[in-house]
Design a protein that fits this description.
The protein has eleven helices and 15 strands. The strands form four sheets. Strands 7-8-9-3-10-11 form a six-stranded mixed sheet, sandwiched between helices. A four-stranded antiparallel sheet has the order 13-14-12-15, covered by helices on one side. The chain has a three-stranded antiparallel sheet with strand order 2-1-4, with no helix packed on it. It folds into two domains: about 1-220, Rossmann fold; about 220-290, Alpha-Beta Plaits. The chain has helices at about 35-45, 65-70, 90-100, 105-115, 130-145, 160-175, 190-195, 215-220, 235-245, 270-280, 295-300; strands spanning about 1-10, 10-15, 25-30, 50-55, 55, 60, 75, 150-155, 180-185, 200-205, 205-210, 225-230, 250-255, 260-265, 285-290. It is elongated. It is of the alpha/beta class.
Length: about 300
Amino acid sequence: MRHITKRYGSLVAVNNLSLDIGPGEVFGFIGPNGAGKSTTMKILACLLRPDSGVARVGGHNVLTEGDQIRRMLGYMPDFLGVYDDLTVDEYLQFFAAAFSIERRRRRKIIESVLELTDLTSKQHTMVSGLSRGMQQRLGVARVLIHEPRVLLLDEPASGLDPRARIEMRSLLTELARMGKVLMVSSHILTELAEMCSSIGIIERGELVFAGTLAEALKRTRTSELIRVRLENADLLPIVAQRLEALDPVGSAELRDGTLLVELTDPGVGHHFLIEQVIAAGGRIAAFEPREVKLEDAFLKLTRGAVQ
């Protein structure tokens, strides 16, 4: 994508967005609601025309070569509509016919996508009788029916329970091992961190970061993070105020009943913080050096804390 812009009246949904996703990548697309993730995916899927800029999939222009792109691309929207009055097999047969797959090949292809998505036992079940997680897996099976090289999956784990999310993550990891190019949007950052080779963070239609997870963490991690929990939690604000006044401390934030301390000088030992907490009257229940994660990079990059 090069300098893609899309407007809805006075609202700029995507603003001058340039992005590259290479062969073999699992690209995690991250952003708040309304950031422009779905609009970007719909442009790549040839469902929306950008107002300006150029986008190509596999070398094909989304404006002039939509037919070629649709043959090599599978798109799963954030809200998956299904036909309740069909069985799982009939549903996949319908889409196989829609993609002009020869009748003699359909059975083998459908059996393979059912096996991949672990839906073989549900082949003759009505779509309306499937759980939310199984319907999401059926959606993935549907986008695989024409053997696409590129997959655009918009919030594939949305609304799933924890077990279904784990199953969906395993499925997407398997697709990546098969050599598919995946672009996956999600709010579940821990899952993206576990399976993505690269990420993009978008906010208010503008791409604020694109690169590997290691690059995002390197860009945002300028200090060590330590999580402190007190037995006398009522003193947390007082301890935070005392620590923030010290030079080696970049910040001391209250978060979920604990204190997250950013230590900017790696040469300062942990005993320094412990002494300061005790001096402020705090009784330490837990003192945990904490690895910076994707959530930390996301929070810093989207609030403009990193230049």
